[in-house]
From TrEMBL:
Positions of the Conserved oligomeric Golgi complex subunit 5 N-terminal domain: 14-146
Gene Ontology BP annotations: intra-Golgi vesicle-mediated transport
GO cellular component, one term: Golgi membrane
Cited PANTHER family: CONSERVED OLIGOMERIC GOLGI COMPLEX COMPONENT 5, CONSERVED OLIGOMERIC GOLGI COMPLEX SUBUNIT 5
Taxonomy of the source species: Eukaryota, Fungi, Dikarya, Ascomycota, Pezizomycotina
Pfam families on file: COG5_C, COG5_N
Membrane found in the keyword field: yes
Principal subcellular localisation of the protein: Golgi
Domain Conserved oligomeric Golgi complex subunit 5 helical, chain residue ranges per copy: 198-413
Species per Swiss-Prot/TrEMBL record: Botryotinia convoluta
Name the record gives this protein: Conserved oligomeric Golgi complex subunit 5
Top-level division of the source organism's lineage: Eukaryota
Amino acid sequence: MTSADEENSYIDYETFLSPTFSPSSFANSLVLGTNNPTDTPLDLSTPLSRVLFDAQEINTHIDTLTTKSALPLLSHTQDQTESSQRIVQEIDSQVASLNDGFKRLEKEVLVRYETAEEVQTVASRLWETVRLGRVVARCLQLGRQLEIQLSEIGNTGAPVKVPGAKEDHKALVRCSNTLLNIRELFQKSGPGEEGHGLERIEVVRTLQTSIINPAERVVLSRSQQLIREFSMSNLSSSSNTSTYAQTRDTKERTDSALKTLYLLSSASGLNSKNAKKLNWEPDLLVQSLQDYLRTALTSSLASLSRALATLPTLDRTLLEVSARCQNLLALESLLASIQPPAHPNLPSDDMAPANFLQPLLTSLETGSLPSYFWRTLAGGLTTKVQEIINKGGVSARTLRSNRNSVRDAIRECVVKGSRAPAGITALKGEKKADASWEREVAVMVGSVMGPLGR
C-alpha cells in the first residue's frame, strides 16, 4: 500500500501494527467509543459493524494490490521455479555421481572389509585354539612329569616299608614344585590369561581327577608321615643307638618333608597391596608340626599316668618321655637351621618367615618347644595325679610312700630330655646347664608333688 492510500484510508494501521496491540483492549475502546457506559443494555451492533467494515476495507486493499502486482508476481514465481529446476538437475547429477562412487567404494572397500573381518575371526579362533592346545600340552607335560616324580618317591614315607624298594625323599620337593606350577596354571583362568578355558577341556579334567589330586594327597601324606616318624633321640630303653649316617638321613628326610609342606601351604587371598600388612602362615607345615607336638604330649601324658599308677614301669616311661623331649629339641634345632625355599605364590619375599621355627613358635605363643612341652605336660599331669589320689588304694599309697624317688626321677627325666641328642646343636638360647632348667623341673615336680601334699 502506498503512502497516498494510507492517507486516504481511515483505518489506523499504526494501531494494528503496534507490537503492544491487544484485541481485547481494542474491542473495549470501540464499545466505549460508541456507547455510554451507563447504558443498559449496551449496543454492540455499531462497534461490530465498524470491525466488519475495517476487515472489508483491508480485503479490498489486498485484492487491489494483488490485481496490480499479478504479472510481476507470476514472473518472479516462474523465474524461481526455473532456477529451482536447474538446481535440482545439477543436484541429481551430483547425487548420481556420489551413488556411483559409493558403489565403487563398496565393491573395493566394504566387500574387502567384510572378507577381512571373516579372515580375522577365523584367525583369532585359530589362535585361541593354538593357545589352548599349547596350554593343554603344557598341562599334560606337567602331569607326566608329576607321574615320573611320584614314582621316584618310591617307598619314602610309606606306612609299610617294602624291603629293597627305591626311595628318593628329594622327589617330594620336586613334586611340590610341579604341583605349584599346575596350581598356577589353573589359577590363571581369567580372560586373556594363560589358563583361560582350561577347565572346559575333558582331558584336563580327567588329568586333574586321576593324577593331580591323588598325587597331591600322596605327597602330603608321605611328608606328614616323615614328620610323624621324626626321631633323633639317643635315649632308648634298648641298646640300639643311631649312627651318623642314620642321623644325617633323618635330617635330610625331614628337611624334604618340611619344604614340601611349606611349598604346598595355601597362599591364596594374598596380593601385592596387602602383602606387607598380612603375616602369612604356612598352614600345612604348622599343622603337621603341631600334630607331632600334640602326639608327643598325648602319648607322654597317657604313659606317665599309667606309670604313676604302677611305679615299676616309671623309669622306662620317664626315659621315653625324655626321648620325646629330645626329639623336640632336635626338631627345634632343625627347624631353625632350614631357610624356606622361594614360594612362587607369595607376592612379596618379605612375607616368608626367616626359618621354619618362627611360624610354629608364633602359633604356639611360646619361645621354646622343650619348655612348651614340659609346661603343657605338667598342666595335664596334675589332673591325672589328682585322679589317682582320689581313687585311693595301693597305687595312691605306693605313690605317696615313694614320693622322694618319684621326685628325683622326674627331675632326672627333665634334665635328660632337655639335653640335645648326638649330632644336634642346641639353639643359642637353649645351651643351658642342667641347673638352668630348674623352672621346667619345678613345674614338672610340682605337678606331681602338689596333689600328693605333705
